[in-house]
Write a structure and sequence with these properties.
By secondary structure, the protein is mainly α. Helix content is 81%, strand content 0%. It contains 14 helices and no strands. The model has no long low-confidence stretch (mean pLDDT 86).
């Protein structure tokens, strides 16, 4: 119980304190969300991705295990979410938004800061989360987008959007420099590292600002199913997948924790852009983010007990 309390105070509370600050600032001063989004996506996130991959020691076999886990878990989640949407006879638009709410996670604005705090003395753990984020970006702009739009309409835009994402190139550059042992001069490394250090605060303030005006009127059946699917079912599937692949130690911890993160804000953006129940999508993002205070704390606690290293 003492460990659980420490996780709540040292990891979860700092995260939600900054989210709350972001919400208050946005309500009082109306922050420019476009600027914050670009700052996160085109500067801070690539910097934190590059620095952690460059400093990590992820080998080829380890990367293969991570990708195998993510592919297998995603396949399970897609199958389960499709089955639930058919069982409850969701119409096409609602079905697409529901599936995205279960499969797509907030691995950037929420996942990376949490991982930074959990693995602050273990760069390898954070590097695993970087790979998860890259995979989720690819999944978002392929499965997520194709799942949202009608067949044959604007589908080709998914690959173009993904290839414009600088995080992908920061990831590749970090792997190349790390594999070739090329040393970055200090006058270049220092500003990159300083930029990376600023990510945690700005990312969480941005997430808080995004959630500032979302209203939750009632708990509909799809909303409850999204909550259970993303925060309860997903970690259970991840645990089984980890056992199947025989993963252990830091890699098992990092992947188990990553499976518990809330619904990606991109699922809400897709729903808004294509008119697929945008209010429900926004509520799913807000509710899973709020409830993740309990579920993520629990999963972090369990990960330290089950997959100790």
């Amino acid at each position: 119980m003492e460990i659980l309390f420490l996780i709540l105070i040292k990891v979860i509370f700092p995260v939600f304190l900054l989210i709350g600050v972001g919400a208050l600032l946005h309500r009082k001063y109306t922050l420019d969300m476009g600027t914050l989004s670009k700052l996160n996506n085109y500067l801070l996130m690539p910097a934190v991705c590059f620095t952690n991959i460059y400093e990590s020691k992820i080998g080829g076999n380890t990367l293969l295990y991570i990708i195998s886990f993510l592919a297998l878990q995603t396949l399970f989640l897609i199958c389960v979410s499709v089955g639930i949407s058919k069982l409850y006879k969701f119409e096409n638009g609602l079905s697409a938004t529901f599936k995205n709410s279960v499969v797509l996670i907030n691995s950037g604005n929420f996942g990376l800061p949490v991982s930074q705090l959990v693995f602050q003395h273990n760069p390898f753990g954070l590097s695993v989360q970087i790979v998860v984020m890259i995979f989720q970006n690819l999944l978002t702009y392929t499965y997520g987008l194709f799942n949202t739009v009608s067949v044959g309409r604007k589908g080709s835009q998914a690959i173009k959007i993904f290839l414009k994402n600088p995080v992908f190139y920061a990831f590749l550059l970090g792997i190349f420099l790390q594999a070739t042992s090329i040393k970055i001069p200090e006058f270049i490394w220092t500003p990159i590292e300083n930029t990376s250090n600023g990510f945690l605060v700005i990312a969480l303030v941005t997430l808080g600002a995004q959630s500032a005006f979302i209203k939750l009127h009632r708990l509909s059946a799809p909303l409850v199913l999204s909550l259970l699917g993303r925060l309860v079912l997903a970690p259970c599937i991840a645990f089984v997948t980890i056992l199947i692949l025989g993963l252990e130690g830091t890699i098992a911890q990092a992947l188990f924790i990553a499976s518990s993160f809330p619904t990606s804000r991109n699922s809400s953006l897709f729903a808004l852009e294509y008119g697929n129940h945008p209010e429900y999508a926004a509520q799913a993002v807000l509710l899973t983010t709020l409830c993740s205070m309990i579920t993520v704390t629990t999963v972090v606690y369990l990960s330290k007990i089950i997959f100790f290293y």
